[in-house]
Amino acid sequence: MFTPSLALLAQTTGIDAAAGTSDGLGGAFVALALGALQLIVSLAIFTFSINQGLNVVSRMIDGIDIWGEIKRKNMAVALLAAGAVVAYTNVVAGGVESMTGGLTTLVKGELRDGIGALVSGLVNLFVAIMVAGVAVTWTFKAMDKFTKDIDEKAEFRGGNVAIGILYAGILVGASELIASGVSGVSSGLTGLVSALL
Question: Which distant-in-sequence residues (6+ apart) come within 8 Å of 9 by Cβ?
Fold first, then answer.
């Protein structure tokens, strides 16, 4: 994520390494600083996403100690936890991408559009974080309605790998669809904020 962003930032700021101009050097430092900032933000959000994804799973299957089950080599719970973390990070990644787009626009020197994109990117990141938790919770509630004759908690506790695979797949698939929706909100927000500025 860091290297492509740096390349894009360098490309959009018109940095020409061969020219060696002070403008090119200044642009390169700005691109490097923004790339480093993006990396730090991404790592912080990744850590937050892991924690939140596991917390949501813990709330949904209360009474089951996730780490205790993983220690017992319970593959069903491990698959569920992995699916929740992947789902959470998929949705939040759209918010990070939107924020990065705003930074890139700012570096290009398009101040009004850049501020609009950055503000909408930050709002979109906040929305993505909120939606990610709701999406995981919603998946569990929907599955409870579809599987009235199955006690999911008992199946997870018993190490039913099939239910772990099913839930992980549903969570990842749902997150891809929801991430697309969050991306659409981002585009609308960028246009709205730019129009207001």
Answer: 30, 31, 34, 35, 103, 104, 107
DSSP result, 100-124: HHHHHHHHTT-HHHHHHHHHHHHHH
Dihedral of the CA atoms 117, 120, 125, 128 (nearest 10)? -120
pLDDT at res. 19: 38
What are the structure tokens assigned to 115, written together? 């501020």
Model confidence, pTM: 0.68
Q: What angle do CA 5, 11, 14 make, to 5 degrees?
A: 140
pLDDT band at 12; cut points 50, 70, 90: very low
> Rounded to whole angstroms, how far apart are CA atoms 19 and 15?
8
Per-residue confidence (pLDDT) for residue 10, from 0 to 100 = 44
Instruction: Enter the tokens of residue 136.
Output: 């995981």
Q: Which residues contact 4 (CB under 8 A, 6 or more apart)?
A: none
Q: Please give the torsion angle defined by the CA atoms of residues 88, 91, 94 and 99, in that order, rounded to the nearest 10 degrees.
A: -60
Residue 166 has pLDDT above 80, yes or no: yes
